[in-house]
Amino acid sequence: MLKLKPKFDLYSDVVSDILRKEASVCRVKEYSGAVDTRILNIERDGGILYSWKGATGTTRIGKFDSNTKQNKLLYTFDKQVCVSSCSLNKEETLLAVSLAQNTRGEERLKPISKCLTLLIEIHPINNTKVLKAVDCRVKVQFLHSESDRRSVLESHLLLLTEDGYVDLYHVLLTRQEGYRMVMAYPERLSKAAERVVEDFCWLQWDGHTQRVYYLTHHVTHTQDKFLMQCVQFYPNHNCETVLEFPFELPANPFHTVNFVNLGFDHYHVERPEQELVRMKVFTNRIGSMYVCSSQHLKDKQELIYTVLLVHTGCSKTFRVSLGGDQKGTQRHPIFIPIGYHIVVYLQDYFLHLINTRQQEMLCHSLFLSGLDVDLGLQCQSANVTVLHAEEESSGSLLDLASGRIHTAELRPAFLLQILRSDTPSRCPSSKTDPQRLAALHCLLVYMGNDPNLELKIIEWLCDNVNAFESFDQIQEFILASLYRISYEKSLSLDKVLPYSSVLDKKEIPACLLEVPGVLCTTELHIEPVFKGKARSLQGFWSELQWNTEKTKYLDAIPNPRFRTSDIQADWDKLRSEKSPSSHKNHIEENTKKVLSMVDTWCLDKKLVPLFQEEDYQQRVLIGLTVDKLREHLNRHLPRLGKKKIDSLVVNYVAKLLELIRHMLESVWLKYKLGPHVLCFTQQGSPAEWSVLHFMFRILEATRGLCLPLPPGYHTLLAVFAVRCLPHHTFLQYIDHGFLQLTETFVSRLMKDLDNSDAKERLKFSILKRLPEPMDQRIYHMWDHPISSASISRDYVRTLLEKLNKNKGFAFTGRDKPGFRPEFLPLTYLAKILSDIEEQALNPFEEQENVDARFVEETALKQTLILLGFEEK
């Protein structure tokens, strides 16, 4: 599931270098003594601090520079000591250490404290200042500002104690003899310490963002209450509480004060059975914050873990049964951030890839159990520490036992295997659909920028053309790929843009609402309170604040997500309008922007004959989609700005057309099709039948979503259909709306097909199905007596209509039932007589008593006289 890339190896990067240096000091070819090297801390710049036992039996502290891959000795103690915490300032002039005091043996009788905290000058090695000597654990951590100045004459040090308080020391430095950096007024350090946090029971340090997250505990008459707070340290080293919100935990969640991301204490290890709750906070630069926590219920043999999405104001709580057989001592999973996913991993039990961007439904997160969950770690995951930086897209894993650091990435080959496998977990298809759906979205959205990966997914679509039981994979491919181009711009787009067709189903399949092995409950969370400068800061805090406010707004309004199917009514209306209008001109301008962008992408991609003809209906739908999506985003996300929104929507629709072209090009190459497929005189091959089936599925998927197709798509589909289908089936597809007769297709068919009986009947059948303006143009392209007669009739009708217009007659006889316009001159004469008769005055109209017998005899007599049978 995960691909682990080696990033650091304590033995090859550090220990081997130490052994060479110790051998040089001892003047031996190879040093055979034990050096007992231990990682102490990892600073913001990636530098790794470590200690080892030298040849002389003393403890030394060094630094591995991750950029230069060089090791540097920082300080040597005059005896062997137990370093429980260590930190180095950015200028590498001061070293802070906490020593766990040895109280065994003879020293047990001496009144010494359990922890001694020192501040040491190391540029060069000079004075040592005792900061604290207490009977509780003390963590040390220097602040690292973003300033690149190397001549800074002050450093700032945090002391975090097990007694539940944090002090900030401002250490002034002075330069002596041109190069020596020493503390100024060291005797004033303790008095000038600033208390920044008090009464915490859990605390996490984030070195990359220079923040402290901590929990405080308040006992009321009815329950225990916990408050999560965040202190931000600014570049000028001032700090303030910028965020707070309540957090729910069980009673007495921590046996002792918990420190997270504050180095590695090899002399104080919590026993697993004493940890009721484990917590970690992750943030992302686009304004997301996650609080992950887990608690093990021993009596019920199940694990509960919660992911609180602070930026969306909701929490997801998952319950997983572990069964009766406990396979190890590990009681808590590890949380690994990978992009916008949170990997929850409990060795030998399960792996849950939680999709925090598409978290409305459980089926968009991948849950695996049993044999599928081996990460390939060479150790117990209980010994693994997760390292995370807000700027990085993935977390790193540190195995303290071996001293190795690996970068964790999702493995696309494994996700593709889930797609291709008929039964990923030996279950029925409906049981595996959630896994396929989650894997597909992860591949397309998070990893989809890889063209080779996208090509493999399209090949999978070709091999699995028929829709699955619970979702349409082509619709999911289209929407997820379109969502990918915009999801990094703003978190609020998650609730505004469509990313899955499953959400539009009238009735969502039951297999997508629940995943075997895991239960999920969603709860709304109290909105966080932003304090101090966080309300005006740019960057992460402004994004987080805007995301929480926008999410609250979008949750309160109906239908915030754009639904492409809502365009259908407007599209039908525009297609029926014959006369031009300003609105239609505006729609056409949108279409031109989209097609011009596609043209710039497709300069060297002319394999499939698309975008080579006018397609009025698709042009209208393209421009209308741009217009409606732009209107939707401007209404709900005005903060993005009109220019950015306009660029986003044009790019969005252009990407849709390019995506369909890419799908056709891929299947074109897969079946090795050539120009001969456009020839009407040859029967379609099995390969062309497969392409036709795939094109019909694309048509079905886009129609279901009311999405436009590239101009020329319907022509290409009709060409494949007339070559592959029997003629009567082809005509039925036209009558049922699956095929659309375009002028390009019909004109080519009339020219390319001969006038044999079967093909002539096909042509007549097609001509009968053409709309009136098109059939007149098509007749001019077919050399046939029927077309000549039709052209003659149209010509005479045009002349007579002109004559009628001049004489004031309206030639409307064609609209009358039973009218037969085979011989137009006779028809014209009959029309004139009919009109004259209607215009003539009826002499008997106002007479009530008329002798009908007399009228008949008179009329007959007059007729006989006119015909010459009688004389007057």
TrEMBL record:
Transmembrane segments: none
Recorded GO CC terms: trans-Golgi network
UniProt cross-references to InterPro entries, sorted A to Z: GSAP_C_dom, GSAP_fam
GO terms for biological process, alphabetical: positive regulation of amyloid-beta formation
Coiled-coil ranges per UniProt: none
Superkingdom in the source lineage: Eukaryota
Domain Gamma-secretase-activating protein C-terminal residue range list: 657-764
Protein name: Gamma-secretase-activating protein isoform X2
Provenance organism: Cottoperca gobio (Frogmouth)
